[in-house]
Design a protein that fits this description.
Shape: globular
Number of strands: 2
Number of domains: 1
Distance between the termini: 17 Å
Order of helices and strands: HHHHHHEEH
Structural class: mainly alpha
Length: about 150
């Protein structure tokens, strides 16, 4: 909980402020819904792909022995993961993980979609750390998640 609150949330916030500031000052290509409905809808869906791709690449990178030893091992100290351990990381890993927002510096986007991207990254990590493999939607229906495999990874 301490690493999440002392490092994760502030780094997440700083990147969010940086992103919003660059949008508001015209440094990032800004598109709006009324002129680019199809692109906005595609970007909303593409955010999910970007997030998974970015996470996969970053996770592979931080499992390189030297980076694992100095950076990612902090996250793996959570041997019994909980929602708090989802953001319990080394500050370098927070920057890399929340760096998913920098995709919006390259692709024409909208601040709302970029906020969605950051929040999806921040809150989306929680299910992978709670140990459940299914989400129940009714008494007889459930769907599988990736969460259990990540839980076992710890």
């Amino acid at each position: 909980m301490t690493r999440s609150m002392l490092f994760g949330v502030p780094i997440w916030s700083i990147l969010q402020i940086l992103m919003l500031w660059t949008f508001s000052n015209g440094y990032i290509p800004w598109i709006n819904f009324s002129e680019n409905k199809i692109w906005i809808i595609l970007m909303i869906l593409f955010v999910l792909i970007i997030n998974d791709f970015h996470f996969y690449c970053i996770h592979r990178l931080i499992h390189i022995p030297i980076l694992y030893k100095w950076v990612h091992s902090v996250h793996h100290k959570s041997v019994n993961p909980s929602p708090w351990s989802s953001l319990s990381m080394h500050p370098v890993e927070h920057i890399l993980y929340f760096g998913t927002v920098f995709w919006h510096f390259l692709l024409p986007s909208n601040p709302i979609i970029a906020l969605y991207q950051l929040h999806f990254a921040g809150f989306g990590a929680v299910p992978g750390h709670i140990g459940f493999d299914k989400v129940e939607i009714s008494a007889k229906k459930a769907f599988d998640t990736h969460a259990y495999m990540h839980y076992l990874h710890h």
